[in-house]
# Entry
Amino acid sequence: MRNQIVFALVVAGALGGLFSAYVYAVPSKPLPPAFSPASNPFARGVFANGIVESYQATGENTTIHPEVAGVVTRIFVAEGQRVKAGEPLVSLDDTVQRAIAAQQKAQADAARSVLDELRAQPRKENLEIARAQVALATANLKSANDSYDKQRRSWEIAPESVSKDTLDTTLNAAKVAQANLELANRQYDLTKAGAWIFDVKNQERQVDALDKAYTASAALLAKYTLVAPTDGVVLSIQTAVGSYVSPQGAYDTYTQGFAPVAVMGTPADWLAVRCYIDEILIPRLPPAERMRAEMTVRGSNVKVPLEFVRVQPYVSPKIQLSNQRLEKVDLRVLPVVFRFAPPKSVAVYPGQLVDVYVGEK
# Structure
């Protein structure tokens, strides 16, 4: 009985194995692809990787870096927002620089007040004092001369009535009074003449130097607010309130590198595609006037015709399209720029990777 059970199990196992082998040997129908892979629409088309950019006559997307370092205190715009040239984007902490500018402005204002004081001379009150001193010196001279005349006449009538010492003393007093009158007249002329021209010019230069120092300080203060350099669209803000930024940009915790504080592009009426043609394929590129291109949006079957814009005539080391300079490979590429109108059937954004075929008309 026991052997019959074992034999039955062996037979059942063998039949099960044969059935399983039959079932798994039947080929399963593959699932349809989510999208068709990029295909070459041209007879001799050249394949290239491309990256979508905002369309600009020259250059790439506009990257914005601060010219000074500081902590972000406010962000005025949102990603995707259209802005006008000069509109503020991000502000940095300017407490110290604002105080420096205020101090230099106060110094310039103080120097200008001194200059106004010099130009306003002579002051009426000072002139009146100098005139009164002349009058006083004139009266003192008359008194001294009268005293000397009296002593001299008395000495001439009766020499014994006045000593020679007294006569000399009154004569010296008259001479001193005359000198004082001359000094008072010169002091009056000096006061009436006003400030010396060299003092005025020196103070003018002081004011000019302090004004320029304040202008430079105010210009530096303005650098603490990043503004839009041109009309466009804010593509990305790569910082946050409280973050520290420098002329290198903002530190990216994900890539552990520095990135622009903001990236701007042109309005999305047109977009550009920058293609990188491998150096070994450059001889196969058609002339610019006969060049055609088509791009495929990855993850879809959408194909978009491209319009040739320009060739950047400089072959440079290839960089993987992740915006990281560390990802160089031993290959050189030629950048070729096309433009296209954004398709309505699928969303396309700057920074997106696409597959491009370049052919000939």
